[in-house]
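Hello forum,

I keep getting stuck at the same step: I have a sequence, I want structure tokens, and every attempt I make locally crashes halfway through. Rather than fight my setup again tonight, could one of you with a working pipeline run this one for me? It's a single chain of 472 residues.
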Amino acid sequence: MTNDTPKAPPLYPKSHLLAASGLAALLSLALLVFPSSDVEAKKTSLSLELESPAEQLKDEAKTAPLVQAEQDNPSPFVQIENGESATAQSNQAQPVAEAKAEAKAPDHREVTVARGDTLSTLFAKVGLPSAAVHDVLASSKQAKQFTQLKHGQVLQFDLDKDGQLNTLNTKVSSLESIRLTRSTKGYSFDRVISKPIVRTAYAHGIINSSLSASAQRAGLSHSLTMDMARVLGYDVDFAQDIRQGDEFDVVYEQKVMDGKVVGTGNILSARFTNRGKTYTAVRYTNKQGNTSYYTADGNSLRKAFIRTPVDFARISSRFSNGRKHPILNKIRAHKGVDYAAPRGTPIKAAGDGKVLLAGRRGGYGNTVIIQHGNTYKTLYGHMQGFAKGVKNGSNVKQGQIIGYIGTTGLSTGPHLHYEFQVKGVHVDPLSQKVPMADPIAKAERQRFLQLSKPLIARMDQEKATMLASNKR
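Reply #2:
Ran it on my machine without issues. Output:
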């Protein structure tokens, strides 16, 4: 019978066991002192991520691309670094504080006026209360000009750190600005007028259909066109004498700001060729400060009367001793000239004089009669109304507006009935020869010629240059 009882493990001497235990302890210590390559790599990686802020600054230039990549794809190590670096947090918080400080600094804002805007709505757009509008308007009578808003106008606001209004500024024209400035005593109003550069400009035109259309094509404004007609109106009847092919040359003042034309000034010289005859005008101010226009050789263009009391009107009826009246339907002398024009067109005094009548007169309706010295008298009938200041006994100057075209009295449509009397006798104002004004004084003739000759030469040269360029 076999004995299956297991054998007991062999017993080692105590000295062996002690030796084995000591060897195991030595091996464990060696593993701690000399780590494996894997452990060493992990430890080195951790050390790089947790390097000091001074070392980060030293290597910042070298690691910029890596830092950008980490910002785009953040890793746990980056988050740990940001979380534990108090210096980095402090550096990031500083710009935020500066940004908040700048937000409280004075603020400049601009608002463009839209349709329907008022000063209150514009103040609201920049965060100002309605009380601020009241304070501004109550500061002075002039401040109310800020309520006269135009579409497209720009208002500039300067606010202080508390959001209150410091200054309000806006342009009311290309040359004028108004401003309100707050002080301890309230708001003060200022008006700033910019002084433009004045230079000379030249325009040339040939009339194809009308003077106004040709002048516009030549670059002349409506006001300059009217000035040209006024200056040369003593010799040229712009209501009936203008013909196709007539031409003009003008040298005038041009106002410029920041390289842009912002307005025009006086006509310095003008030349108009009408039906083959040329008329020239030169502006001259004498030593006494009186300004007028003269021909190139110094004769005055200003005559005792202008030929047409209404600009660019159409002659609807001429002077006649046997015309059939359109309303009375009978043959009746027409002792004047009728100028048809739109209702409200200004009527000018033909010469200096004293108003004998400014009121109603039978079939003439609203009428003005002016006495010019002892010899001449003019009448203006069918007016819509009278200009301000025109009344019985008042004095008027040549070219002054005395009333407006209308249909009062016996009239079939808006027009002016104009009469001219010489020593109480009605004459045809279109054919009447009128006296000349005084020419340039002999003492100033040389001074005048020194001014006029360059202006005439300028028109000649500019015209020749323009015609030569058109032939190319």
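Confidence is low (pLDDT under 50) at residues 36-105. If your local run keeps crashing, start a new thread with the error log.
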